[in-house]
Amino acid sequence: MEASTLLPAVAVFSLVTVEFGGHALLQLTTVQNGTLTPLRERSFRAGHAHAGVLLILSLVYFLYLPRAGFSSGTEWLFGILLLAGVLAQSGGFFLHLALGTEGHSSPGTHLTRGGALLLAAALIALGVGLVQHL
Questions:
Q1: pLDDT tens for residues 85-128?
Q2: DSSP string covering the chain, please?
Q3: Where does the sequence pass through the membrane (predicted)?
Q4: What's the CATH number of domain 3-132, 1.10.287, 1.20.140, 3.10.170, 1.10.20?
């Protein structure tokens, strides 16, 4: 099985969790108004938004990955790197929601930054591969 076949399916199924998160956020901000502190609400919104946008980005990424001319193993490496970055960056906001305090870094802050680095590495690798195969 190819990375560009299985990993997009993982991303599509992951979007269902983003839908559930949207429903949960709506419940917490409307029906159970006041359940979240302002910091937790901001962290929830940021994690939810990043997860959705980055998963859609991953679907585009997987359309272009086969065009970069990478070996099968390299496609798997960069595809997993991208999805790990999506999970880390958006998940870091949720970790900060649980552990963070206003105006201070937390393990969630570090996880979000690490996820951004993984995403950047995967995107740069794809860009280089695409340029090399013009």
A1: 999 999 999 999 899 888 899 999 999 999 999 999 999 999 99
A2: --HHHHHHHHHHHHHHHHHHHHHHHHIIIIITTTSS-HHHHHHHHHHHHHHHHHHHHHHHHHHHGGGGT--HHHHHHHHHHHHHHHHHHHHHHHHHHHH--TTS--HHHHHHHHHHHHHHHHHHHHHHHHHHT-
A3: 6-26, 47-64, 76-99, 111-131
A4: 1.20.140
